[in-house]
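#struct-queue
[09:14] JT: dropping the first one here, sequence first, then the structure tokens:
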Amino acid sequence: MNLRADVIVLGAGMVGVGVALNLQKRGRDVVLIDRRGAGEETSFGNAGLIQREAVIPYTFPREFGTILSYAMNNRRDAVYHLSALPRVAPWLFRYWRESAPERIARSADALAPLMAECVKEHDALIAEAGGKAASLVYQKGWLKCLRSEESMRDAIAEAKLLGEYGVDYAVLTGAEVRKLEPHVSDAVIGAIHFRGSPTSADPGALTKTYAELFVQRGGRFLKGDARRLSQEASGWRVALESGPIEARDVVVALGPWSDDVFRPLGYDIPFAVKRGYHMHYAGKGNATLGHSLHDAHGGFALVPMSKGIRLTTGVEFADRDAPPTPVQLARAEPFARALFPLGERLDEKPWMGRRPCLPDMVPVIGRAERHRGLWFAFGHAHHGFTLGPVTGRLLAEMMTGQTPFTDPSRYSAERFRH
């Protein structure tokens, strides 16, 4: 006899878990399916920031000199595999086109209502999950560190724009930075302190804690391969080793693997993957780090985690499943050591993750156009961890007939047809 549910959610990263919990809250019988445990892919290795300030998306450079420097492929913030360029070049062109000022403004307007609610939605789940979840999150905000007067002026101008979206920030001098973080290098002349953005000391563990809450409330979490999804007369079926499960609705929340499902179903969505790496370090001597630091010049972040100080890299454009090539980590580490006194490496090898991206850096959230009962929740780029719970709320409101808290049309996959 086949198992049945109201909804199957494919993918147990932060987005999938957020969707499952929000549908469950609204009375739906939900099955969450992943080939691994919760939070063991992209949600495991990010910087752990719940980025209330991330209204303006990361953009493709517009200046010729900057583009030329990227083409030389010797930067720290972005690198590419030459072998992947024929496949990724059309997407990069669309990314460049969507980075025009008027289009960035449109993307920011789409992201703003999600970012405005992201901390509140995480806070609600943290409160519901109890002390374990609360112990994994600290409320100090993060520091965008600047090394030149020009970069400081640009950062202040951007922060003022973000202030119009309700972002809480403070402009710090170098001395004020070192009052908060005494071991930060004198090369940092100032920083923007984004005070309203919490950080998780273990984002993978926080995702697992949310998934445990889902199971405690009666949800089912099953291991399975999302590529074994098929449409049936009564809805959707996923063939599992333990037997098939069927549901009227299915949500594709597979992060960088989402195209393994939507492309065979005939959806031509401009989807790409930005890869990235992390490594943990001890502090050198008596050095301790209390805030997340982003080096705007170096293209990396240092984040205090349960396991140590996590160095996260920028972007690598490569085939999703190509072998790891952590050249960015090797390039960033000397700059990170100059910014903050790092000790020995604590991981046997670098961790590699994949960020699922659309060219406008806005996720796809909503109903699939051509299949009844098929829903999408993917493409969150650098902010899946930030936006998982609020994405879950928005999609659950749409799926259960409630009034969505913001206009969902701006997140439709159909926007790429225009």
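[09:21] JT: and here's the second one, same format:
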Amino acid sequence: MAALVISVVPGVFAADVGGGITPDIETEDFEPLVWLCDQRVVYDDATEPGRYSQDGEEMLERINNYAFEGEQIHWLTLVMDKNGIEKVSDVYGTLGSSQGAGNDIEVNCDRLAGVPYIREVKYFTDDGRHDGKKLPSSCNARIQEEILREFDSETMAFYECTLTVETTESMYGEYWITVEAEDLDGMQGTMDENEYWFFNPVIALSITGDMTFENVRPGTSSYSDTLLIENDADVSSGVMMDMFITGTDFYDSSSSGAKCPTSNQLELEAFRYFATNGAYSTYQDAEDDSAGSVTRDKDSEGYVNIEYGDAFNNPFPFYDDAEILQAQPVGPYWTANLLTPGADMAVTFRLDLPEPCNGDFDTGSIYFWGEAI
């Protein structure tokens, strides 16, 4: 018997075949980066213009970390987000008790168009021109070892931030301050350069000792006990005080028939003072005088006469007339005339009582003034 075996082999009836795969792509949630550019600037206010800086001008004399109501701190920052600059929802200045992100938002920052012109810049291009493309080197913009040199409007923007110091009700004491950027996902980046400030410190002077002259013989000189004049500002504030002295004439409050030497008035010119602060004393006084009511001078004993005044008058006669101690000039200031918190000056008074003189002169004042610089 013959058997017929038929084998069936599967055949390929299509011309081609293929398949697909769905990739899993996860984009990095880029944390915004914030760089401080150029110099950050502190501006004076109009409340009490200083000896050097006026309202709205850059405050060059402030060398310690304190600021008063109305004064401003200004930063120029560069913000970058590789997810796109439009994803940055907010850039703001924060103030709080610790460094880094998460402190209270105190001021919002203004976004600038393009690359702003920065003063004293010589590095935008090879020939020093501002072409709107090069990043200022002062920003030190970098991601790890990668240095960023070109401005990319799709991922970068410049922001100006200006913090104005408020009243003591909302701002008093020591705070950390920085600039932060936040994106739509809530991710935050901060400027590396945190600052530590004392806002609205209490400023005060304390006077230890009495200015008493007893049984002074007319026509003679008498010396008071030495007084200590201390900068009694908040200890950790760093407030430096520029010191001044003025006075008035003196009168006898009783009906005693006073006369010294021609009227019932003991004139301020009868008083002089000797002051010491560290290595300096009024014996080294510069006798610098501008527009005061009296010509400043020291005598052979190192005692200096006193400017007339019963209020702090800015700028005259105080500046270059009424400083307690004019020695060791640096810029517009006499550094020997400055007091840090807790520091003091020693001041001794001399009364050159006229002859003839009669009366007990108990009405009138010698004033000490301190201006925070």
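[09:30] RK: nice, looked through the second one.
[09:31] RK: Residues 205-372 form one domain.
[09:31] JT: good to know. The chain has two domains: 33-199, 205-372.
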